[in-house]
Write a sequence for this structure.
């Protein structure tokens, strides 16, 4: 397992080592000792599985406000996604910038997303599944989001946006008064 720096503080791409034999393959998806080397000493308290039937589906851009901010470890276990995060940390050098990466069941990459980021993705294939590990519990009162198509962020989705929930469609656009989280 290799943790790769990004231009965003505390945001890492995780490259998993694939051990292959006649049965198939094995990979370690998380190791507390390896993650401690980058200063990550949190505990995951909730795991979620997202299944998406249609290609082009968008989920996001979601985050939780204090006191339920969370780290997320995201991995695609079937299909593929264009995964996107937006830095909402008001004191960050990359405030309101976004980072994207393709996560697929073939490339075995994950992304470790720190507290203070919004997260979302677009499916690149039908029947795509992701596994999320969270360091905090979901709290509906702390749950928030940014419109996936906010012109202030300028995300270039690879496919025509499709199959978006009413909730995600109705998230607000950022305005000049947004101070971060």
């Amino acid at each position: 397992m290799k943790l790769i720096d990004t231009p965003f503080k505390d945001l890492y791409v995780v490259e998993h080592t694939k051990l292959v034999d006649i049965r198939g393959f094995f990979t370690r998806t998380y190791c507390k000792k390896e993650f401690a080397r980058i200063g990550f000493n949190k505990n995951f308290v909730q795991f979620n599985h997202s299944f998406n039937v249609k290609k082009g589906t968008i989920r996001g851009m979601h985050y939780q406000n204090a006191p339920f901010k969370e780290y997320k470890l995201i991995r695609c276990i079937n299909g593929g996604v264009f995964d996107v995060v937006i830095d909402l940390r008001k004191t960050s050098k990359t405030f309101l910038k976004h980072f994207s990466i393709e996560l697929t069941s073939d490339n075995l990459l994950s992304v470790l997303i720190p507290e203070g980021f919004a997260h979302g993705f677009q499916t690149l294939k039908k029947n795509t599944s992701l596994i999320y590990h969270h360091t905090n519990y979901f709290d509906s009162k702390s749950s928030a989001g940014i419109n996936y198509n906010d012109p202030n962020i300028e995300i270039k989705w690879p496919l025509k946006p499709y199959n978006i929930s009413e909730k995600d469609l109705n998230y607000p656009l950022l305005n000049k008064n947004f101070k971060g989280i």
User: Anything to note?
Assistant: The chain is about 5% helix and 40% strand.
